[in-house]
Amino acid sequence: MNLVQKAEHWGDTHHTRWLDVVRMILGLFIFIKGITFVSDIQPLQELISRTFNYVPVFVVHYIGFAHLVFGPLIAVGLLTRFAAVLQIPILIGAVFFINMAPGFDALNSELWLSIVVLCLLVFYFVYGSGPLSVDEYMKTHIRHREV
């Protein structure tokens, strides 16, 4: 068993229900952030362009799209690991390239919020969906149907 398989096995065998509530709140938070990004994309584009000289339009639209699509997937526990791994690069960019860029005040920016969300995404990438999720429902429902 390699390290990833061991981490997935640990995540599949150690579940507590309160962590599912945290996962749901995380997914809703990411979805709401996506709504704010898509409703007014100009501030996000200006924020990214302060750090980088050239920002492809694709990057700005991917951030909004990923938050809108994968936030709800995390909230309901459907393809949680997949959704988390697609969100992690966005949050790494937010933590290391946007919020830590010269000219940003670490106390007044969303640096700490971005760090917490990044840590939670990494945790749920390892931990998985949990017992209160669509993934778990599908596993148990399919097992009972086959028996």
Automatic annotation (TrEMBL):
<keyword id="KW-1133">Transmembrane helix</keyword>
<comment type="similarity">
    <text>Belongs to the DoxX family.</text>
</comment>
<keyword id="KW-1003">Cell membrane</keyword>
<feature type="transmembrane region" description="Helical">
    <location>
        <begin position="82"/>
        <end position="99"/>
    </location>
</feature>
<dbReference type="Pfam" id="PF07681">
    <property type="entry name" value="DoxX"/>
</dbReference>
<feature type="transmembrane region" description="Helical">
    <location>
        <begin position="51"/>
        <end position="70"/>
    </location>
</feature>
<dbReference type="GO" id="GO:0005886">
    <property type="term" value="C:plasma membrane"/>
</dbReference>
<feature type="transmembrane region" description="Helical">
    <location>
        <begin position="21"/>
        <end position="39"/>
    </location>
</feature>
<keyword id="KW-0812">Transmembrane</keyword>
<protein>
    <submittedName>
        <fullName>DoxX family protein</fullName>
    </submittedName>
</protein>
<feature type="transmembrane region" description="Helical">
    <location>
        <begin position="111"/>
        <end position="134"/>
    </location>
</feature>
<dbReference type="InterPro" id="IPR051907">
    <property type="entry name" value="DoxX-like_oxidoreductase"/>
</dbReference>
<keyword id="KW-0472">Membrane</keyword>
<dbReference type="InterPro" id="IPR032808">
    <property type="entry name" value="DoxX"/>
</dbReference>
